[in-house]
Amino acid sequence: MAKPMRVKCPSCGTEGIWTEDNPYRPFCSQRCKDKDFIAWADEEQVIGGNSDYDDILSEDL
Ligand SMILES: [Zn+2]
User: Fold this and answer.
1) pTM above 0.90?
2) Cα(25) to centroid of ligand 1, in Å?
3) Which domains does the chain have, with CATH numbers?
């Protein structure tokens, strides 16, 4: 059997073991996975929101 590989959770930095059993890898937990996804989604929303706002202003002018 291969030695377990250690990985750092990209969200909280906690060092954990990468296993096929961990559905959240490379994150340490569901919580960290959700946290990272929410941060990414928020960023997308801000960019999209600003773009739409600019379009509306352009049309009015
Ligand atoms: Zn984590």
Assistant:
1) no
2) 9
3) 5-60 (3.30.50.10)
